[in-house]
Specification:
globular, alpha/beta, 12% strand, five-stranded parallel β-sheet, seven-stranded mixed β-sheet, 440 residues
Length: 440
């Protein structure tokens, strides 16, 4: 490494000794702490802000500061912290948590370099790393020719799946983190968590769902077999989680029930009479919402009772070989469907909602003439995505966590985030999203 920040937007690269890197909340993993340790060993000044006992558990000691005031004082605090500590780089997981959203606003006002992580779009074995924002705030281009050019610059990319997920590393850190926050809330009484359900209730419900998973999967396997055997044409609607920021902040809807109503209304009016609609629950849904009952009620209202199949379990991919297409709000399941060659219609500008990949007409036209993806462009998109917004590694695999931490540290050190022309300003999806009512 040269010892200078490789920032194409910076005329005078900063020396290592001039850079101070601030980490906010990361995923529930040693990922951020390990990346911070690597950066500190390289000579960078590293800071960390903790907001709750769970944060402290993951990372405490040198360079760590606890924020214990309420959210009203956070904008003033973070602006002062960035200035006082001469922060040059801000790193955080997810761009729409209350603390993170306001921190990004403060950072961009003072030209602090912002790096945002998220779970990988190309799972397993990847983490997402983008500059300034994700999803509708992503700076990754939407122009097909630009994407092809990035893919050409990237060359061959190893897309093989690596670092398989461990159920233990998916569940134990989450449970530990949230229960510690419940029982030690007195230490951080003003902390506002970004999740919407009480942790204890969520885990109890999740345990019950896990117990019933085998039975539910067998029912779904039977129903899918019957559907395929009938030869009846169908479209898929994968459900998304109520607490997902893709719904809460990157869409105009307050609940996925509104999404279901929009899709049902359109399908009842414009969908071919011989076609049916298949709803599939999210694998991490613990059942706070009774989607089966809600869907059946809405189907009855729209005259779709005999054209609806609700699946609570199984794998979405098992339906790809027979489906006519997938309609989604903005789920990453859309990428899987595209890779299976299926037409996909998004209701808001998802990252992959690109002309040539997704259906560009309205929802009404999708039911009648769904547009299949251009597989050559899809290959370029995946390669360009992997080379510019994804890093190898996984927080759900011990070796993968170490690899992810090394890659994150290196990309921050060199500021190689959204490289190869993959940073378009302003975010190319944002205007269209705002026109649809997305609150960004």
């Amino acid at each position: 490494m040269s010892g200078e920040a490789n920032d194409p937007h910076c005329d005078t690269p900063l020396l290592v000794s001039e850079r101070a890197i601030l980490f906010l909340q990361g995923p529930l993993s040693p990922f951020y702490r390990q990346a911070g340790d690597i950066l500190r060993q390289k000579g960078y000044r590293v800071h960390r802000l903790n907001f709750c006992a769970g944060d402290w558990l993951h990372w405490h000691g040198e360079g760590c500061t606890s924020y214990k005031s309420d959210e009203r004082h956070w904008p003033e605090f973070i602006a002062e912290f960035l200035s006082k500590n001469q922060i040059t780089d801000l790193v955080l997981h997810g761009d729409q948590r209350l603390y993170h959203r306001l921190a990004i606003e403060a950072a961009l006002k003072t030209e602090v370099f912002v790096a945002v992580t998220e779970l990988g779009a190309l799972r397993p074995g990847w983490m997402t790393l983008e500059r300034n924002g994700l999803s509708t705030l992503s700076h990754f281009p939407v122009n097909a020719d630009e994407i092809r050019e990035i893919a050409k610059r990237a060359g061959d990319v190893d897309l093989s799946p690596l670092y398989p997920s461990s159920f233990w590393l998916q569940t134990a850190p989450d449970v530990t983190y949230n229960l510690i926050n419940v029982f030690l809330k007195v230490l951080y009484p003003n902390y506002q968590r970004h999740t919407i359900y009480p942790p204890v209730s969520e885990y109890l419900r999740g345990a019950l769902r896990l117990i019933s998973q085998g039975k539910r999967d067998r029912v779904v396997q039977r129903d899918v077999g019957t559907l395929k055997k009938s030869g009846k044409p169908f479209f898929l609607l994968p459900l998304q989680l109520e607490g997902d920021f893709q719904l809460r902040r990157h869409s105009p809807y307050d609940s996925f029930a509104e999404v279901i109503d929009v899709v049902f209304r359109s399908f009842a009016k414009n969908g071919p009479q011989d076609d049916c609609l298949v709803l599939k629950t999210h694998p991490l849904d613990v059942g706070f919402e009774n989607w089966r009952e809600a869907s059946l009620s809405l189907a009855h209202q729209h005259g779709l009772s005999k054209r609806l199949l609700f699946l609570d379990g199984g794998r979405l991919s098992d339906l790809f070989d027979a489906a006519r297409g997938v309609v989604t709000l903005n789920s990453t399941a859309g990428v899987e469907a595209l890779q299976a060659g299926l037409p996909v219609k998004t209701l808001v500008p998802a990252h992959y909602d690109i002309e040539g990949l997704t259906h560009q007409g309205d929802l009404e036209s999708f039911w009648q003439s769904p547009q299949k993806p251009d597989l050559e462009l899809l290959g370029c998109y995946i390669r360009a995505l992997a080379a510019t917004t994804q890093i190898r590694g996984s927080i759900h695999n011990r070796k993968g966590t170490r690899i992810a931490a090394e890659n994150l540290a290196n990309h921050i050190a060199d500021r190689t985030i959204n490289p190869l022309g993959a940073f378009v300003d302003p975010p190319p999806r944002l205007t269209r999203a705002r026109e649809l009512g997305v609150p960004l």
